[in-house]
Design brief:
With about 525 residues, the chain is α/β, with parallel strands linked by helices. Strands 16-15-11-10-9-20 form a 6-stranded parallel beta sheet. The protein has a 6-stranded antiparallel beta sheet with strand order 21-22-23-26-24-25. Strands 2, 4, 5, 8 and 17 form a 5-stranded mixed beta sheet that branches. α5 runs parallel beside α6 (about 195-205) and α12 runs parallel beside α14 (about 415-430). The two termini are about 40 Å apart.
């Protein structure tokens, strides 16, 4: 039966809730129909969707370092939505939800597409805006892998010039962590960046837009930390001192963006960087809910971890050039989202397509599948064993995504034909930019995903478990290579299709295709 509470399960969850202090919550069980499949909750779990083996999480305290939303949607046209974050577990049989407010499955049509679009209109209607068009029309280039924590003016300029010298198109360049004097200062380290205005002007002349990495953290022993603390702009501990929060760069104080004055102060600092140096926008890192789960005191005494994450995310709404990795419940907003850092492995490459599909089905259409080859810095250390073909195949996955982002310099880890294959992937993205722009405009109006599950476009035709190919809008079926093998199976739905080489096919059809290293396999739908 659908939409029922299983008494035995409820009793078990109630005991657990009492033990962890959440006895005010109740348990709700949504049983799946005979062939019903579910997606949602976390983009980080996309490769486990549609759910088979039990998985899930607590949306109130854990965003799993990526996009999350209190939303699940099914192939039978049903969806689960709550204005309050909940804990859930999902598998093939159904979904168990623990929530302080009633939760049930609602009717949203007869298919995954219908349910998603109806839910989007009801609960997270698109604001009619998107990030800056340049985020989609050309590749993005992040200095993280090449410069790490040694960001410098000369290093950034050298990286940009090498991109052009190696045949890559100008796009958006992101200067990553450690360009500043100290965390939170929003001011350049003048020893490593002696003339930021000259650097930005030069990058603009070369054809690049320029973004800076920022975070909500503040170096604890800095004069800025003392000043912000005196103005109640920092999260505090129970003794009224700045709370010291552990994160990947150590232990720092943290802005309290539940205080409107802190938001205004921070945005004024960002605008000052724009006005003084010509910076185009910002990569907003951090903000994950788990940073706000300790014994802390906020300006808004009722603030939850989700409130802190949302307050951080809303700062980006003032800046069309933006990027976030962590988000909760801001579907429909004009924010660029990036998948969390992946390793340079075939296993992580295989997660890109399903995780991107999941991001779209959470209401985040303006997404980027991490950095090409992976954004995990240790994957590209001097003694790392880098698989060049995996980097090439990663670039090809990115080519027909809404955004593609390089970080590791292809010419450093690749050569010859492999380097040329990366150039070809970048050129394909630029070539397809006008079509991607039409999908961006559609998302602005309806919230429709840009990267779409096969089940979304072709419901009830056996595509629910198809995770290694996707639809770019409704026109292109993309079947990238995501394993060490150069041969893969492609499932073409009914209709007429033309592949990237011009060969025509009539579906439904299953193909085994051997794909050369420089080729991204895709098919255009012929009407």
């Amino acid at each position: 039966m659908k939409n029922i509470v299983t008494l035995a399960v409820a009793m078990l969850w109630a005991v657990a809730a009492f033990a962890d202090g959440t006895a005010d919550k109740r348990t709700y069980r949504i049983e799946s129909g005979k062939n019903e499949r579910w997606w949602g909750g976390y983009s980080q779990l996309g490769h486990r969707m549609p759910f088979d083996v039990a998985t899930g999480g607590d949306l109130s305290t854990d965003n799993k370092s990526n996009q999350s939303a209190p939303f699940l949607v099914s192939s039978d046209g049903r969806y689960i939505w709550s204005d309050t974050p909940f804990r859930f577990t999902a598998d093939r049989r159904g979904i168990t939800v623990e929530s302080s407010v009633p939760v049930s499955a609602r009717s949203g049509g007869k298919s995954l597409r219908e349910a998603f679009l109806i839910a989007a209109q009801r609960h997270f209607k698109s604001k009619g805006k998107s990030p800056a068009p340049e985020m989609f029309s050309a590749p993005q280039y992040n200095t993280w892998i090449e410069l790490g924590y040694d960001q410098s003016q000369q290093g950034v300029l050298d990286y940009a010039q090498a991109l052009l010298d190696n045949g890559f198109p100008a796009g958006v360049i992101m200067i990553d962590d450690n360009w500043h004097r100290h965390h939170g200062s929003l001011s350049f380290d003048m020893e490593r960046f002696p003339d930021p205005k000259q650097m930005v002007d030069r990058l603009h002349e070369m054809g690049f837009k320029v973004m800076l990495w920022v975070s909500p953290f503040v170096t604890p022993d800095s004069p800025l930390c003392k000043d912000l603390a005196s103005k109640r702009m920092l999260i505090r501990d129970r003794d009224g001192r700045p709370a010291v929060i552990s994160w990947w760069n150590g232990r720092s104080a943290c802005y309290d963006f539940t205080n409107p004055a802190a938001c205004d102060y921070y945005k004024e600092g960002l605008r000052s960087l724009q006005e003084r140096y010509g910076i185009d926008g910002f990569k907003f890192d951090g903000g994950d809910t788990y940073f706000y789960t300790g014994d802390i005191v906020s300006f808004d005494e009722e603030a939850t971890p989700v409130d802190h994450l949302q307050a951080w995310s809303r700062i980006g709404l003032d800046f069309p050039f933006n990027e976030y990795r962590a988000s909760y419940g801001l579907a429909g907003e004009p924010l660029a989202e990036r998948l969390s850092d992946k390793n340079c492995t075939w296993d992580d490459l295989g997660k890109l397509v399903p995780d991107m599909i999941a991001a779209g089905l959470l209401g985040y259409p303006y997404a980027c599948p991490d950095m090409i080859g992976g954004g995990e810095l240790t994957s590209f250390s001097d003694n790392a064993d880098i698989d060049g073909m995996m980097v090439v195949r990663s670039a090809q996955v990115h080519a027909l995504m809404p955004m593609m982002q390089f970080s590791v310099a292809p010419w450093r880890v690749l050569g010859g034909a492999e380097l040329e294959a990366c150039r070809k992937a970048a050129a394909l993205h630029v070539k397809m930019a006008p079509y991607i722009a039409t999908l961006v405009r559609e998302a602005e109006q309806t919230g429709a995903p840009i990267v779409r599950a096969m089940e979304y476009e072709f419901p009830k035709r056996g595509f629910a478990d198809c995770k290694d190919q996707f639809m770019l809008g409704s026109r292109y079926l993309v079947a990238p290579i995501v394993t060490p093998s150069s041969t893969r199976e492609v499932r073409l739905p009914a209709g007429r299709w033309r592949d990237d080489m011009g060969t025509l096919y009539k579906g439904p059809l299953v193909l085994d295709v051997t794909v050369s290293p420089d080729r991204l396999l895709y098919f255009e739908r012929i009407k």
